[in-house]
Amino acid sequence: MTEDWPAVATAINERMTELGVNQRELAGRSRVALSIVREIVHNTVQRRRSGRTLEALSVSLGWHPRHLAAVLLGHAPPAPDAPVDLAADTVPARLAAIEDHLAEITERLDKLTANLSTLVDRQQPHDER
């Protein structure tokens, strides 16, 4: 199964332009971390994403919940009013969502650790270093 992340990025960017929405607004509406929205919109990190992430972005952009998943797989997106297949909400999709959240938490912790190290270094007297 070939995933077309550039097509997902293009679809999101075009829709954001059409709606006059920026990345921060999309992140807020979708409840997807801004860092993940940036990765997807700029196609900087191609990794497995949670079905819930793509679903939240799709809905926030006024599309069918499975719109971006279809684009990713090179399929025609469903109509906005098409029924949603609840069977697609599988354990792998839930695990992928957890992985996304853990990656975000790890990124935040790494930044906090770096900031704390910088603060500690600044607080120590020069001769104690």
From TrEMBL:
Residues 95-122 form a coiled coil. Keywords: Coiled coil. It comes from the Bacteria. InterPro entries: Lambda_DNA-bd_dom_sf. This is XRE family transcriptional regulator. The lineage of its organism: Bacteria, Bacillati, Actinomycetota, Actinomycetes, Pseudonocardiales.
